[in-house]
Specification:
4-aminobutyrate aminotransferase; Aspartate Aminotransferase, domain 2; 15 strands; globular; Aspartate Aminotransferase, domain 1; binds 4'-deoxy-4'-aminopyridoxal-5'-phosphate; 4-stranded mixed beta sheet; alpha/beta
């Protein structure tokens, strides 16, 4: 993260003067970007960067079909969401073709935060509960309600008594029985809610546990925890903002790898390839219950231009075989990174699904997570023309997340840059 004083670049000062304390910039010496295409971004000084910190323009930067769809629609009609415009229903039907049949209503929003905020409120209305179980380094968004359920967003203070954070489903926390270990964590949280006199509303989880450090295997491990939450009368909200839209390769959604049907699915980031759009898929009976009390209106959510962007994204994923590419190129990348791990004890673990891979960096002697090395590697990759970020409780897991159109040689280039940065 950028800290004031690290650089005196004029552009950075200007940004800080404009955005103040809420300014979030990547790198101590932030990069001024001017354009992007495919997996590549170009800075003002002409440097080209291979973008592995990419989960928004996920079908490729400035994809011509998305650009064309958005341009055409905005030239023709864009308005609030109170009219029938066929592109919107065309989009929703195309999106729902990827959803479990039971989730046949989709509420469109502008951000993942709004989608999760709504999902939490629907869960409360449907269950009469107020308790939420999340994972310990989760991030679900920025509204008042969702921030309270996002442990990684809290810099000070503690979670409210209606939110319990449990460890992510990992070997470290659960041993070999990851499914059983995660279910037990959920059951312990439910017992704690009972002790507090709080009725549970939902387990809300990012189905690839991005902020927690990326935990994908074994596929299916989520189902025991989902059974446990339902046995307590509460719901399962799958936050697909990160893993959704084909990224994990095996399935279109992260929850698909686990063979489960969530009660609600929230989605965002890659949905419009950079055009701001998000949404929540839900059972009609749950939505009716919620809307009977307060209703829901979103001026921009699911406007015609968003629908056009979203439809182009779905078409590109299908026509260019991007889910399959995520699976195949992801497997190559995983293998390449595992080769590095075999040769260097500081690369403690490599895991993931499709084009969503976590790489743990650790101290060679003690095996402890090494956030300092991680920062050095991130900076070293940058100087080798590769953009990459970190996640996890210790900030010592590289979050490997390139666009889904990644080419084999780009994956190889990443592995070479990683080796170089480590050396
Ligand atoms: N859920 C997850 C898993 C996220 O990673 C994010 C954003 N980082 C959000 C929700 C919130 O989405 P947005 O920033 O679009 O509000």
């Amino acid at each position: 993260a950028f800290r004031p004083g690290d650089t005196d670049a004029e552009a950075v000062e200007r940004r800080l003067a404009n955005l103040g304390a809420a300014s979030v910039l990547f790198y101590r010496e932030p990069i001024e970007m001017v354009s992007a295409e495919g997996a590549w971004m170009t800075a003002k000084d002409g440097t080209r960067y291979l973008d592995f910190y990419n989960n928004v323009p996920s079908v490729g930067h400035s994809h011509p079909r998305v650009v064309e769809a958005v341009s055409r629609q905005i030239a023709q009609l864009n308005t609030n969401t109170r009219y029938i415009v066929s592109v919107v229903d065309d989009y929703l039907e195309a999106l729902k073709a990827h959803m479990p049949d039971s989730l046949s209503n989709v509420v469109m929003t502008c951000s993942g935060s709004e989608a999760n905020d709504l999902a939490m409120r629907v869960a409360m209305a449907a269950t009469g509960g107020t308790g939420f179980i999340v994972t310990e380094t989760a991030y679900h968004g920025n509204t008042a309600l969702v921030t309270e359920a996002s442990p990684s967003a809290l810099k000070r203070g503690s979670l409210p008594e209606t939110v319990i954070a449990i460890p992510p489903p990992s070997v470290q926390h659960s041993g070999e029985d990851i499914a059983g270990g995660f279910r037990r964590s959920v059951e312990m949280a439910l017992a704690e809610f009972a002790r507090r006199g709080i009725t549970p509303a939902a387990l809300m989880a990012d189905s690839i546990f991005s902020s927690d450090g990326i935990f994908a295997d074994p596929p299916g491990f989520l189902s025991e925890a989902v059974d446990a939450i339902r046995a307590a009368g509460a719901l399962f909200i799958a936050d697909e903002v990160q893993p959704g839209f084909g990224r994990t390769g095996d399935a279109f959604w992260g929850f698909g790898r686990h063979g489960i049907t969530p009660d609600m699915v929230t989605m965002g980031k890659p949905m419009g390839n950079g055009f701001p759009m998000a949404g929540m898929a839900v059972r009609p009976d749950h939505l009716e219950q919620f809307c009977a009390d307060v209703g829901y209106f979103n001026t921009f959510g699911g406007n015609p231009v968003a629908a056009a962007a979203g439809k182009a994204v779905l078409d590109v994923i299908r026509d260019e075989g991007l889910q399959e590419n995520a699976r195949d190129t992801g497997a190559l990348l995983l293998e390449g990174l595992r080769d590095v791990a075999r040769a260097d004890a500081r690369v403690a673990d490599v895991r993931g699904a499709g084009l969503f891979i976590g790489v743990d960096l650790a101290e060679e002697e003690t095996g402890r997570p090494d956030p300092d090395l991680t920062v050095k590697v991130i900076d070293g990759m940058r100087s080798r023309g590769v953009l990459i970020g970190a996640a996890g409780r210790y900030g010592a897991t590289l979050k490997v997340r390139p666009p889904l159109c990644l080419k084999r040689e780009e994956a190889e280039q990443f592995v070479e840059a990683f080796k170089g940065a480590l050396s």
